Amino acid sequence: LASHGGRLNVAAIPRATRLNEEVFASEVAKGGRRTAPLRGSAAAAARSGKAKVHRHVVKALHTRTSHARVGARSSSSTGRARASGGATAGGSSRGGALRGLTLNGPELGAAILGKQKKVENRSWDLPEKYHGEWIALHIGNAQNTPPWVRRYVTRAWDTDLAKNAAWKLRCWDTTDQKAHALPPRGAIIALIRFSGMHRFARGEGKADPWALGPVCWDLDRVVPLAKPICGVQGNLGFWDVRKQVKPWAVRSLKEAIRDADAKRGIGRFCERKS
């Protein structure tokens, strides 16, 4: 809509719209009957009715134009997000903020990187919104891993499966807390994805020694970062990665997510031998 001198420029309204408005105003002023042209006070009343209808039409056109502009901007933003692989400013493949998950020791991270630990044992349910969503895998800052965690990893680690793992993990001594194969503490080391979760079942621990429960989150994929992002504090539960890393690290994670989405087979877990 265009204006001139603070007044509405009627010529800027499409001709068909002006004609419809004039006919409607005339019909309203005539009480819905076709009569001879109005004169005097009747004509003034008609003009007044026409002006009121005119204002309503202009308001409707303005609202429609504003909605169209907002829709166009929204479609443009969605198109850019899709073109970039679905990752937005937060880095999530679904458009939300990328979340991090902290592990209690690098031994657990190594077991996941080695694609042997396929479940994450928690006492609470995995929120449905994180099913199939990329999560930043983080190792806590604690200087020493709890003894029970080291025993747990040593008991469950399969040296035969380790032959197909990354070269650093092939000869990993799980009892060595300073082994070169261990990822750094206080760092984001990989991207992981959960396909869902299940309740720990009786006898499941014999088939899968990594499963402890009471709730097992099923790992679907793990993609190691080319270079870990160090100096990250982490937190309990799921935490917002953007609040703990620098902008360059967020960009790096976004690129890693795009690459992982483009290569759908990368990071898939192998089946454990029966």
What does this structure look like?
With 274 residues, this protein is of the alpha+beta class. The chain is built from 8 helices and 8 strands. A 6-stranded mixed β-sheet has the order 4-7-6-5-3-8. It has a two-stranded antiparallel sheet with strand order 1-2. A hairpin with a 2-residue loop joins strand 1 (3-4) and strand 2. Helix 1 (15-30) runs antiparallel to helix 2. Residues 1-8, 12-36 and 64-90 have low confidence and may be disordered.
Radius of gyration: 32 Å
Total count of helical runs of at least 4 residues: 8
Q: Which outline best applies?
A: globular
What is the element string, with H for helices and E for strands?
A: EEHHEHEEHHHEHEEH
Structural class call reads alpha+beta
Helical coverage, percent range: 25-40%
Strand content: 15-25%
* Biggest β-sheet description: 6 strands, mixed
Mean pLDDT level: 76
Assembly status: single chain
Tell me the total number of β-strands. Answer: 8
Q: For the largest beta sheet, what order do the strands appear in spatially?
A: 4-7-6-5-3-8
Alpha-carbon distance between the termini? 72 Å
Low-confidence stretches: 1-8, 12-36, 64-90
